[in-house]
C-alpha cells in the first residue's frame, strides 16, 4: 500500500515523542512492502536538531509553505491507498481538507495525543489540527490511547470508526547498551518539560532527590528552565538524541516514566519512551494509570509509584532484583510492542475499515490488542 502521511515530525526527535515512533513504524511498513510519503513542515526549532533525513522505503518531504507543497501533496494522494493526518501536524486543518477531498482509498486521522485533544475540546479551546467539523468525515480514526478515550473521540468529535494503535519501539535502535559515565544515576528521567507532568515529576523525582541527597538523579530533555526546582543532586542533559537513548536508559538503576495528566486520567496510554526503555532492558518505575497492567505486569515487569515513599522503596531493591525486572520487561516488549507488531496491527485495522457497515464494539475492557473497529453516529453537532 501507499501511505501519504501529514505529521508533526519524523526528522527531529527534539521536544516530541512522535519522531522515533514514526521512524520505527515506517521502517516496519517498508519491510512489509509498503511505501510511506511523509510530509513535515520544516520548523525552525526542529531544524537545528534534525537527526533523520530519509524515510526507509519511502520519502520525506520537508516544506516551508503549505501552498507551495500543495501540488505535490495532491499528486501523491491521487494514487494513495491511505491518506493520513496526525495530531499536532503544523497544517493539520488544511491537510485534513486535502485528504478528505482526495481519492485515497482510506482517509484517516491518527491522534497520537487524543487525551490532550479531548481535554482542550472539553475546555472550549480551539484545536488547530482538528477540522472545524470534527473527525466525522474520516473513514477511520486511530488513537494512540485506548480505554474511554475511544468513546469520547466518537461522542465529542464525531469519529465514525475508531481503533487503538498504541506506541511501539524499533529494537534495532533501542537495545541493551553499555552504560556511559555521563548518564550514570540512581534514578533517571527522560522527557520534554510539560506543565501537566510537573506535579507528578515533583512528587516522584524532585522530592525523592531531596530525601536522598547522596544519590544521583538525572533528567534528560528539553524546555526546562531556571524556574524548575533543581536540587544539588539533580543533573541535567539538554536533549538526548535518539542515538543516545539506549545508553541513557542503561546507565541508571531505575528510569522513571511520568505521564501527562490528561493521558493518565484517561488511561491505556503507554508512551513511546516507556517501550523504548523496556526494549533496552532498563527497569522502569512508572506513575499509575488505568490499564497499565495490560501492557506490563506490575511487580515482575515494571514497578509502580504513587508517592515519594514508593520511589524510595523501589530504589532500596537490590541491583539483581531490578535487573531481573528489566529483563522480563524487555522480553514482553519484544513479543508484543515492537514496530513490526504494530505495523501488522495497522494492516488489520485498515483492512477492517474497508468492510462496509462494520460495527463491532471496540473493546473498552482492558483488551490491549488490535480490536475490531467501532462505529457510532456523530452525537454532538459542533465541537469548535
What does this structure look like?
Helix content is 35%, strand content 17%. It has 384 residues and is of the alpha/beta class. The chain has an 8-stranded mixed sheet with strand order 3-2-1-4-5-6-7-14, sandwiched between helices. Strands 10-9-8-11-12-13 form a 6-stranded parallel sheet, with helices on both faces. The two termini are 34 Å apart. The model is unreliable at 359-384 (pLDDT under 50).
Strand content: 15-25%
The radius of gyration is 20 Å
Q: How much is the average pLDDT?
A: 92
Q: What form results from the Cα inertia axes?
A: globular
N- and C-termini, Cα separation: 34 Å
Helical segment count? 12
Q: Name the helix and strand elements from N-terminus to C-terminus, one letter apiece.
A: EHEEHEHEHEHEEHEEHEHHEEHHHE
**Order of strands across the widest beta sheet?**
3-2-1-4-5-6-7-14
The structural class is: alpha/beta
Number of strands: 14
Low-confidence stretches: 359-384
Quaternary state of this entry equals single chain
Largest sheet: 8 strands, mixed
- Amount of helix: 25-40%
Amino acid at each position: 500500500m501507499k501511505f501519504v502521511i501529514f505529521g508533526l515530525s519524523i526528522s527531529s526527535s527534539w521536544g516530541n515523542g512522535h519522531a522515533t515512533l514514526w521512524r520505527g513504524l515506517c521502517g516496519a511498513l517498508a519491510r512489509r512492502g509498503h511505501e510511506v510519503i511523509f510530509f513535515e513542515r520544516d520548523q525552525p526549532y526542529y531544524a537545528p536538531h534534525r537527526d533523520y533525513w530519509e524515510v526507509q522505503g519511502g520519502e520525506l518531504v520537508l516544506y516551508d509553505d503549505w501552498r507551495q507543497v500543495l501540488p505535490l501533496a495532491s499528486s501523491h494522494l491521487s494514487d494513495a491507498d491511505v491518506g493520513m493526518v496526525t495530531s499536532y501536524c503544523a497544517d493539520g486543518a488544511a491537510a485534513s481538507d486535502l485528504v478528505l477531498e482526495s481519492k485515497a482509498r482510506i482517509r484517516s486521522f491518527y491522534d497520537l495525543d487524543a487525551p490532550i485533544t479531548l481535554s482542550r475540546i472539553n475546555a472550549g479551546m480551539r484545536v488547530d489540527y482538528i477540522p472545524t467539523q470534527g473527525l466525522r468525515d474520516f473513514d477511520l480514526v486511530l488513537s494512540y490511547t485506548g480505554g474511554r478515550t475511544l468513546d469520547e473521540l466518537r461522542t465529542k468529535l464525531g469519529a465514525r470508526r475508531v481503533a487503538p494503535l498504541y506506541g511501539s519501539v524499533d529494537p534495532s535502535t533501542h537495545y541493551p547498551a553499555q552504560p556511559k559515565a555521563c548518564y550514570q544515576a540512581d534514578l533517571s528521567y527522560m522527557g520534554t518539560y510539560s506543565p501537566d507532568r510537573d506535579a507528578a515529576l515533583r512528587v516522584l523525582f524532585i522530592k525523592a532527590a531531596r530525601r536522598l541527597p547522596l544519590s544521583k538523579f538525572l533528567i534528560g530533555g528539553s524546555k526546562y528552565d531556571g524556574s524548575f526546582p533543581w536540587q544539588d543532586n539533580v543533573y541535567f542533559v539538554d536533549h538526548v538524541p535518539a542515538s543516545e537513548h539506549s545508553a541513557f536508559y542503561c546507565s541508571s538503576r531505575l528510569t522513571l516514566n511520568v505521564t501527562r495528566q490528561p493521558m493518565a486520567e484517561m488511561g491505556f496510554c503507554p508512551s513511546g519512551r516507556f517501550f523504548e526503555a523496556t526494549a533496552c532492558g532498563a527497569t522502569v518505575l512508572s506513575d499509575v494509570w488505568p490499564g497499565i497492567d495490560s501492557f506490563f505486569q506490575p511487580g515482575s515487569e515494571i514497578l509502580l509509584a504513587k508517592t515519594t515513599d514508593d520511589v524510595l522503596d523501589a530504589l532500596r531493591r537490590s541491583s539483581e532484583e531490578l535487573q531481573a525486572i528489566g529483563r522480563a520487561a524487555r522480553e514482553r516488549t519484544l513479543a508484543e510492542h515492537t514496530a513490526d507488531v504494530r505495523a501488522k496491527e495497522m494492516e488489520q485495522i485498515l483492512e477492517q475499515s474497508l468492510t462496509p457497515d462494520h460495527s463491532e464494539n471496540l473493546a473498552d475492557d482492558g483488551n490491549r490488542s488490535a480490536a475490531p473497529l467501532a462505529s457510532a453516529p456523530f452525537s454532538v453537532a459542533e465541537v469548535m
